[in-house]
Amino acid sequence: MCAKILKPTDLALQGELYVPGDKSISHRAIIFGSLANGETKVTHFLDGEDCLRTISAFQAMGVSIKKEGQTVVIDGKGVSSLQEPTEPINLGNSGTTARLLLGVLAGLPYHFALYGDESLTKRPMDRVAVPLREMGAVIDGREDGKYLPLAVRGGNLNSIAFESPVKSAQVKSGVLLAGLLATGTTTVVEKTTTRDHTENMLEAFGGSLAKKDGKISINGKQQLTGTHIHVPGDISSAAFFLVAAAIKDGSRLTLKDVGLNPTRTGIIDVLNLMGVQLEVVEERSIGGEPVGSITVAYSTPHATIIDGDIIPRIIDEIPIIALLATQAKGKTIIKDAEELRFKETDRIESVVHTLKALGAEIEATQDGMIIHGNSKLHGATVTSYGDHRIGMMIAIASLIIDEDVELENEECIAVSYPSFFEDLTKILK
User: Fold this and answer.
1) Cα–chain-centroid distance for residue 379?
2) CA 420/CA 417 separation, integer angstroms
């Protein structure tokens, strides 16, 4: 496989950019549209590999889903119309599809077989499988259902009260989706608030739930109605360009119509904390989700400590935050982020190894990393590890390096941002 050569550039990031639709919201729009009665139209859908896996999973269960560019139309016939697939469902690299889909399949009276690629096969699924078994689903797989491939026999679920042992919106969502199909009221308790797109999406489709003091309760057997969902720009994708503009001399960039859900805006808080010049304007609500435009200019960031409750709000942005920290004044410490070890790759080790190869002074800890700033990065041959966020981090790092950077396996970036390099070229002026 040939590496992508990232050449040095004197150009700065200028102008405006619309980033692709939010990955988390795109997944959930397909799921709820497939469970609902009536037509659902999804606009500005993320046309990335992960979200396409969610579409193909529901098509395998007999749902009519038509896609044209960034618009998806779902002809929903309700939960009772879902059928037993004739073949195993391939989840590819999509952890979101895997964990949320498990919640749905647990409530259907059929047998399902699920598998994924090499990376997904290493990611733990028992965090969802265990509570779903408590509800009555039969789930088995490698190491007692900890890893894919998995076999699921669902149906006749009972409600439970579940306290999530991990700070994970995927786990919460998997249980809530099962609760939607169960008998009785299912309650999920969160010690730390995680992204709430599932809760917002349920209400957009006419469903209801109760939230109080970290407890989320959902009544089973609700009937959902198809609707129109416009997907805002993905702030996790925007984060790469926000940091790029902050560290590339002469840059000033505006990212338009980006999702500003408070459970996802930790990247803005971190940038502010580190002294990056940033402004949020044009704030409004679209389909129950806040959106706005973010302008960032080249800055002289300073180090900080990142830990505690903000971690779930930046869990996908930590790779690019680590790059920002290499250019900050002082020592940045990231902790309480052990969940990074269970992403597409062990993101603690892969981020540290990659940035070290590029000349950064950085070290891994069990639950995060320590990054010494004011690093002059240099060229190297590095790999994405098959992780889209590592691949994009490397591409942004190359903008401040005076030598070639060779990026191996850049194809994985298409998982969440198929037009990444095209968009990057547009704003380099």
Assistant:
1) 29
2) 5
Question: Where residue 1 falls among pLDDT bands split at 50, 70, 90?
Answer: low
Contact 226, 79 (CB under 8 A): no
Sequence-separated (6 or more) residues with CB below 8 Å from residue 331: 303, 370, 371, 372, 373
Q: Residue 96 pLDDT > 80, yes or no?
A: yes
Q: What DSSP designation does 428 have? A: B
Token representation of residue 265: 């805006």
For tokens 């779930």, name the residue. Answer: 312
The total number of structural domains that make up the chain: 2
Cα 411 from chain centroid? Answer: 18
Tokens 């590095």 — which residue? 382
CB 21 within 8 A of CB 232: yes
pTM: 0.93
Q: Residue 424: its pLDDT value, please? A: 98
Spell out the residues 6+ positions from residue 46 whose beta carbon is closer than 8 angstroms to its own.
20, 21, 22, 23, 26, 70, 231, 234, 416
Please state the rounded mean pLDDT for residues 32-61.
97
d(CA 425, CA 190): 41
Q: Which of 22, 50, 234, 316 is catalytic?
A: 316
Let me know if 316 is a catalytic residue.
yes
CA atoms of 400 and 247, how far apart (whole Å): 8
Q: Which helix (H) or strand (E) holds 82?
A: none
Give strand pairing partners of 289: 286
What does the block give as tokens for 105?
């399949």
Beta bridge partners of 11: none
Residues 200, 150 share a domain: yes
Containing domain of residue 405, as a range?
Answer: 4-20+232-427
CA–CA gap between residue 51 and residue 25 (Å, rounded): 10
Tell me how crowded residue 262 is: count the other CB atoms within 10 A of its CB. Answer: 12
pLDDT digits (tens, 9 = 90+) for 18-28: 999 999 999 99
Summarize the confidence of residues 209-224 as an average pLDDT.
96
Are residues 179 and 285 both part of a single domain? no
Last residue of a domain, which of 211, 230, 249? 230
